[in-house]
Amino acid sequence: MEYALIVAGGKGLRMGGELPKQFLPIGGKPVLMRTLEAFYAYNPEIHIILVLPHSQQSYWTELCAEHSFSLPHTVADGGETRFHSVKNGLAYVTTPGLVGVHDGVRPFVSQEVIACCYELAAEKKAVIPVIDVVETVRHLKGEESVTVSRDEYKLVQTPQVFDADLLKQAYEQPYTSFFTDDASVVEAMGVSVYLAAGNRENIKITTPFDLKIAAALLDSCLI
Ligand SMILES: Nc1ccn([C@@H]2O[C@H](COP(=O)(O)OP(=O)(O)OP(=O)(O)O)[C@@H](O)[C@H]2O)c(=O)n1
Ligand SMILES: C[C@](O)(CO)[C@H](O)COP(=O)(O)O
């Protein structure tokens, strides 16, 4: 069984505004619908678990009706942090298989990246997509800072795909603020994570600036 656990339980503080960022329209369609569609296009049999704050779930139901959006999915409650949201969603993973955890606000993940991460995870058990750093990186040391070799760093995206039993076991660990993604949770158990190629368009819509990039990506047919 393949699961996609789409997390959209955050507060969107960096985006601001009245409407939570996962519901903002891009090209007339809410971000979150585009994200779910990407996973359904990859595998129409995939089991999609959508994590949303409890207070936003009735609005999501209304949006689905308004947009005639009928892709099957199970809704779980959001938690205090991303870690707690993923953990809530994992309660709906009930059979062995693979779980891809994906940010609801990354609608531009490519079909190639999704397929590659699931395919590799069947063998490696823990796979995450990454891209190169394209700017120079400096490390802050107190009042000073030094240039470091960018070749020693990667930028991490989602979907992060894992063997279901492994991921569920990892999420039994106590929460620490170091857990900013799923790989960091799995690694805390001493398990190595395999790196796959991500796609640069797979941005995490975080600030109003990212919405402009998203609109440009759609307009230019880059995705
Ligand atoms: N308690 C949380 C926090 C985050 N997320 C999800 O994790 C993804 C990455 O988080 P981010 O983009 O930082 O979203 P927010 O936490 O909502 O943003 P901010 O930090 O600006 O408030 C998002 O899809 C977000 O909804 C979640 O499901 N539950
Ligand atoms: C999971 C993630 O998108 C990988 O880059 C990222 O760690 C989420 O971080 P955020 O601070 O919750 O946006």
Automatic annotation (TrEMBL):
Pathway assigned in UniProt: Isoprenoid biosynthesis; isopentenyl diphosphate biosynthesis via DXP pathway; isopentenyl diphosphate from 1-deoxy-D-xylulose 5-phosphate: step 2/6
Alphabetized Pfam families for the sequence: IspD (PF01128)
Keywords assigned: Isoprene biosynthesis, Nucleotidyltransferase, Transferase
Known catalytic reactions: 2-C-methyl-D-erythritol 4-phosphate + CTP + H(+) = 4-CDP-2-C-methyl-D-erythritol + diphosphate
Gene Ontology terms: biological process: isopentenyl diphosphate biosynthetic process, methylerythritol 4-phosphate pathway
InterPro entries, per the entry: IspD, IspD/TarI, IspD/TarI_cytidylyltransf_bact, Nucleotide-diphossugar_trans
Annotated site residue numbers, Positions MEP for the nucleophilic attack: R150, K204
Protein family according to the UniProt entry: Belongs to the IspD/TarI cytidylyltransferase family. IspD subfamily.
Entry protein name: 2-C-methyl-D-erythritol 4-phosphate cytidylyltransferase
